[in-house]
Design goal:
The complex is a heterotrimer. By secondary structure, chain B is mainly α. Chain B contains 15 helices and no strands. Chain C is elongated. The chains are: A alpha/beta, B mainly alpha, C mainly alpha.
Chain lengths: 293, 341, 277
């Protein structure tokens, strides 16, 4: 596995409350290879977003969070329990795109200032002037032609779609090896979401950036990912190449997800109580790692 | 009209509405007091004719709205009447005492911002840890005693038991400073008398600190709460996800959005200080508006009371306009939408 | 609810606040039994024993006419608590009503009511109270009136802001759709959702009312002799600093203790409210 960028093993997470401990993640194993696009699919509350935050070390400082297991980046152990080793990689080697681009950018600073700060992570003590030139180029790459106006604007002055492009440009500014996209553009309307996803797709392909794509939308995942992990109530229930998952679905939850693509709110949607035989059904791992190996 | 200009015009016109209201309120309070102002002014020995003549010159026989008209005309010409206590025009009295009070309040305000905000930032950064709990108790103690109690305690500790600071006054008598602005800290510098400047600073430190303590506590508590709220915002998580250092987030990216809601309250604290200055001045024998204010209140010196309250309210309204504009300057959302939140 | 009490008691600061408040209330209620010289609450003189430093008989010393300071402080708690209760009972309903009315009505009424509120808020609290006090006779009743006059606008502003945001909530809109009257919506729908905020603010304010009243009497504009009052005790003692330090320090600390207690509990209530959402 010398080619692996990210390797998560036996990761579990629980929260120590005042009266009881709540298990959120249970023995997660997940790996991403160089330049590979991997999707993590599950309903909201299944634990997919916390995985992203553990990788970045954002969750470990939270009161009551107990993290166990190992997270390796390029073979280097990141000490997942504390998250301390991860800090120096953030923004340089690993970056992230958030669900709602507009609220994820500081409302009292101009886009140009945010670019300056982030580019400073890659090139220390970069001048504002140079940062703005670099930022203009990055914005051009995400098809923003009026980059001058954008850099002079505050996030709330731009449309959601525009902010999403800015967010993508920011995320790729320091040429990271791994990009985590947490439900990108879910807050946007469908056509804008499709456009920006396509843009992101082209850019990561060009830069050979590995992506962990977190989503509940199987339709999007099918277009975008090489490989898929399906997560349900904190456990991986099925994993494999996108084609085998979609064409040869094994786990009942994944099947339910597939059937529910257009009507996820319908009554008969998959629900297994924690001690039902359905829930205890073993995870299914498709033995077809043809992509990226 | 550019948004920022429109904002200024809007705020000033709103302030004018409020000032008119303040003048009506003070006028109303002044008119409901029992007793005839003319009789009070002339004393019990005056004849009925004398009282009647004064009533006529004071327009007391006219309908109430006509009286208010005269009242507004006079104050808009800067005429606040004559004080019964000092027998001088109230404007001259106030001009003499106000600078000392304002100097005290401004120094206290600077202390409040320079000490309170950093304490709040530290508290929020180390939320739930020992230092946070300690700072929370200290700032809560700060707001839990009236400033005269702090004044007495500080005086006892740092002027009597440890004689570091002077007990009373603005400056030692040996210095003769030409009054230009009335602010000793500025006048001494204009004079080029550095010794006198340090002497004045040394005198103002303890009273200003006593006055500032509750503001410091308030500012620290508020900044802490706002910073903690800001820390939960997605844009701070974004900054953390991109590896921006904790210090830079605390001092810049979380600080500025948190400062905006704090500022309004800091403006209100400034108002409270204008009132509390009366208490601190009484303890430290500070030659400001306090002694004058209390004296005229006890003597029911109508013109002087009305004038003092008006001037203090005017100061406060001005401070509020400045704070509002500062907020607009810091918060682009207000600057660009021109709509106050 | 049980969980909330558990959270409250898990925080040593809240427990300390509750203890301080109970101590103050308890000693005020049972002042006749716990104070060593109950008669000293009034105009008693004992010149053989005046201006004594703290000792075994008079643990906080005696004042300038020989009265036991500890006794007078405990009795002063009574006045302070009474003032706090009366001021809040009068000013909170007025402020809340104005806030509801302005926030829910909107339009011209909103503008007029809120400008009136602004007017009151533009005069520094203490100065407004001083002006009212000064123009009336400095009695206990007028003291309450003065402080009440400056207190209600704070509640108007609080409830106004809450009402403005609650007005848009689904439950209010639903009530309007089924044709509820505006009074029903204001008092039965919106008001119950503001009670948390009101109670928290009242707890904090109880301390601050005591603080302001003591400031007024410190300036000689409040409770008059011989009624024991913490503010006037500090004012009187301040003239005899530093030698008779106990005359100012103990009444001053007494004010600090009451206000601190209410602040601690108010903070705990606010934290509890935050965990709700």
């Amino acid at each position: 596995m010398s080619d692996s960028i990210l390797d998560i093993q036996n990761l579990s997470l629980s929260f120590q409350g005042l009266t009881e401990t709540v298990d959120v993640l249970d023995n997660i194993n997940l790996s991403i290879n160089r330049g590979e696009r991997v999707a993590l699919v599950g309903a909201s509350g299944s634990g997919k977003s916390v995985i992203a935050r553990i990788i970045l070390g954002l969750l470990q400082s939270q009161k009551g969070a107990i993290v166990k297991g190992s997270v390796r980046f390029r073979g280097i152990e990141l000490e997942a329990a504390t998250g301390n080793q991860i800090e120096s990689l953030r923004g340089r080697e690993i970056s992230m795109i958030f669900q709602d681009p507009t609220s994820s950018m500081n409302p009292v600073y101009k886009i140009g200032t945010i670019f300056h700060e982030i580019l400073n992570r890659g090139t220390h003590n970069i001048s504002k002037k140079l940062a703005l030139i670099k930022a203009s180029k990055l914005l051009e790459e995400v098809s923003i032609t009026e980059f001058k106006r954008v850099l002079e604007s505050y996030p709330f002055q731009l449309s959601g779609g525009m902010n999403q492009r800015v967010m993508i440009a920011l995320a790729l500014a320091n040429k990271p090896a791994l990009l985590i996209a947490d439900e990108p553009g879910t807050a946007l309307d469908v056509t804008v979401q499709a456009q920006t996803l396509k843009l992101m797709h082209n850019l990561v392909k060009k830069n050979n950036t590995a992506v962990l794509f977190i989503s509940h939308n199987l339709g999007v995942v099918r277009q975008f990912a090489d490989r898929v992990y399906v997560i349900y109530k904190g456990r991986i229930v099925e994993s494999g190449s996108t084609s085998s998952i979609f064409e040869n679905t094994k786990h009942p939850y994944t099947k339910a997800l597939m059937n529910a693509v257009p009507k996820i709110t319908s009554k008969s949607f998959f629900d297994a109580s924690d001690d039902s035989s359905l829930f205890k059904q073993p995870a299914f791992h498709h033995k077809d790692r043809e992509i990226g190996q | 009209m550019p948004p920022i200009l429109r904002l200024i015009v809007q705020r000033i016109s709103l302030a004018l509405v409020v000032l008119i209201g303040v003048s009506m309120l003070i006028f109303a309070i002044a008119r409901v007091i029992p007793g005839d102002p003319a009789r009070i002014a002339l004393g019990p020995n005056a004849t009925v004719e004398q009282v009647e003549i004064l009533r006529e010159t004071l327009h007391l026989n006219d309908p109430i709205y006509v009286q208010y008209g005269y009242f507004v005309r006079d104050i808009s010409q800067g005429d606040l009447g004559v004080s019964l206590y000092t027998n001088r025009p109230v404007t001259i009295d106030i001009a003499q005492f106000l600078p000392a009070t304002l100097e005290l309040v401004i120094v206290a305000g600077i202390m409040m911002i320079c000490i309170g905000l950093p304490l709040g930032m530290i508290s929020a950064r180390y939320k739930g840890q020992f230092i946070d709990n300690l700072l929370r108790v200290v700032s809560l103690l700060g707001v839990s005693a009236p400033s005269f109690v702090w004044a007495v305690i500080l005086m006892l500790l740092f002027a009597y038991f440890l004689p570091i600071f002077p007990v009373a006054g603005r400056i030692e008598d040996i210095y003769v400073i030409k009054a230009v602005t009335g602010f000793l800290l500025i006048d001494t510098l204009i004079d080029g008398n550095i010794d006198a400047f340090f002497n004045a600073s040394w005198h103002i430190f303890l009273p200003a600190f006593a006055l500032a303590l509750s503001g410091i506590g308030q500012a620290a508590r508020l900044t802490r709460a706002n910073m903690i709220e800001t820390y939960n915002k997605p844009y701070i998580e974004m900054m953390r996800a991109y590896g921006v250092s904790q210090f830079r987030i605390a001092s810049r990216y979380a600080f500025k959005p948190s400062l905006i809601p704090s500022l309004t309250i800091i403006g209100l604290d400034f108002a409270a200080m204008l009132g509390n200055a009366f208490l601190v001045e009484a303890v430290f024998a500070w030659p400001g508006l306090s002694r004058y204010g209390v004296a005229v209140i006890l003597r029911k010196d109508l013109n002087a009371i009305v004038g003092t309250v008006l001037v203090i309210s005017l100061t406060f309204v001005l401070v509020n306009i400045i704070v509002d504009l500062l907020i607009a300057f810091l918060n682009p959302r207000i600057r660009y939408s021109q709509r106050p939140k | 609810m049980k969980l909330k009490i558990k959270i409250l008691l898990a925080n040593p600061l809240s427990v300390m606040g509750l203890l301080l408040i109970s101590l103050v209330f308890g000693s005020a209620i049972f002042a006749d039994f716990i104070t060593p010289f109950p008669l000293h609450k009034g105009a008693v003189v004992d010149f053989s024993n005046f201006n004594q430093a703290p000792n075994l008989t008079n643990i906080m010393g005696t004042d300038l006419v020989g009265r036991d300071l500890f006794t007078r402080i405990i009795y002063a708690f009574r006045i302070s608590i009474m003032l706090g209760v009366v001021v809040l009972i009068i000013s909170v309903p007025i402020g809340v009503f104005m806030g509801l009315l302005a926030g829910y009505s909107g339009g011209k009424l909103d503008f007029v009511l809120m400008r009136i509120t602004d007017v009151f808020l533009s005069i520094p609290p203490l100065v407004l109270a001083m002006a009212v006090m000064g123009l009336l006779e400095p009695t206990l009743l007028n003291g309450m009136l003065a402080v009440t006059a400056m207190w209600w606008p704070w509640y108007t502003r609080l409830i106004y802001n809450l009402t403005r945001s609650e007005k848009e909530e689904g439950y209010v809109v639903a009530a309007e759709v089924v044709g509820a009257s505006r009074w029903h919506v204001m008092f039965r729908e919106i008001l119950p959702n503001c009670t948390h905020a009101i109670i928290t603010k009242m707890t904090l304010d109880f301390g601050f009312v005591i603080l302001i009243v003591s400031s007024l009497s410190f300036l000689g504009l409040g409770v008059q002799a011989p009624t024991p009052d913490l503010g006037s005790m500090v004012a009187e003692g301040a003239r005899y600093l530093p030698d008779s330090w106990w005359l100012t320090v103990f009444p001053g600390l007494a004010i600090l203790i009451i206000v601190f207690g209410f602040n601690l509990v108010g903070d705990a209530l606010r934290d509890m409210m935050d965990t709700d959402s």
